Every structure is written in structure tokens, then in C-alpha cells.
Amino acid sequence: MNIAYGVVDLHSGKMEVHSKQHEGTTITIIL
User: Fold this and answer.
1) What does the chain look like in DSSP terms, one character per residue?
2) What InterPro entries would the database entry show (predicted)?
3) Are strands 3-9 and 26-30 parallel, antiparallel or unpaired?
4) Which is it for the CA torsion 21, 23, 24, 30, positive or negative?
5) pTM value > 0.90
6) Cα–Cα distance for residue pair 24/11, rounded to 1 Å
7) Cα–Cα distances in Å, from 7 out to 4, 10, 21?
8) How far apart are the first and last CA of the chain?
9) What count of other Cβ atoms lies within 10 Å of the Cβ of residue 6?
10) What residue segments make up the domains of the chain, in order of their start?
11) What pLDDT shows up at residue 1?
12) What gap in Å lies between CA 3 and CA 21, rounded to an integer?
């Protein structure tokens, strides 16, 4: 997976990973 950048939201405890391969698609990971 090509990860362009990751955004970590500490308040919700989630990390949004935006991939270059699927541009416009956001994968939300529950930490």
C-alpha cells in the first residue's frame, strides 16, 4: 500500500490513512 500521509485524531482515537493508489478513499483504523 502506498500511503501518502496519515492523520491521527487523538480525540476520537482513529487514524485516517490516505492512499495514493486509491485517491479520494479514506481508510479509518480504530486504535
Assistant:
1) --EEEEEEETTTTEEEEEESTTTT-EEEEE-
2) HATPase_C_sf
3) unpaired
4) positive
5) no
6) 23
7) 10, 10, 17
8) 19
9) 11
10) 1-31
11) 45
12) 8
C-alpha cell of residue 2 = 502506498
Query: Is residue 3 within 8 Å of 23, Cβ to Cβ?
Result: no
pLDDT tens-place values along the chain, 31 residues long: 455 556 655 566 565 665 555 555 566 655 5
Q: What are phi and psi of 24, to 5 degrees?
A: 95, -10
Measured CA distances, 25 to 4, 5, 9, 30 (Å): 11, 12, 17, 16
